[in-house]
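Take a minute with the sequence and fold tokens given here and flag any structure token that looks odd. Thanks in advance.
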Amino acid sequence: MNKQINEAHISLLSRAFEKDPLFVFLFSNRKNKEQPKILIRFIIRRNRLLNGLILTDDVKKPSYVAIIDRPSNLRNISIKAKIKLNIDMLLLVFKLPFHTLRYLTKYQKVTSTIAPNEAHYYLTMIGVEPSYQKTGTGKKVLREIHEIAKSSQPSYTIALDTENPQNVAYYQRLGYELRGTKMIDGLNVYCMIKPADSSH
């Protein structure tokens, strides 16, 4: 699935997150359309290096992209992958504003304190092409992710973080629980989990 990811998918995610509170906060210079794509490319590359999971439906005209971290951690990846990841992170210093990198570092530290201690899937990003939004596409993709987590041996919890308060009720209807809310530099982050034994 990862091999199919290309600029069409990066462009979709950039459009899907254009009005997302986190992306609006991170990229205050709205004229620079490339900066969000730089971050998305890094997230995808990190996912590949960590042997993550990417779901999409088409190579040329995708309607959705979901980026998911598998239930593993940095200790399970090769030294070579760790070096590549560290180099990629260093290169971001030359590509993204300092306040963006500073916030992302803080975000990672704060949200990791609320994340489940046990191994779990982490939904990094899920984006639906704007013209497909409100058609049930997002729900269909989430159910596919739920099935992957449920059919694993053992079944796993799914965690996610969202900055959009409207998303909280949406995820709750699909079996997620609000684990905690953190304010990071004036932006509310809602940390949610779907327990391993949940049936939605």
Helices lie at 7-16, 21-26, 34-49, 79-92, 98-114, 137-151, 165-173. The longest strand covers residues 120-128.
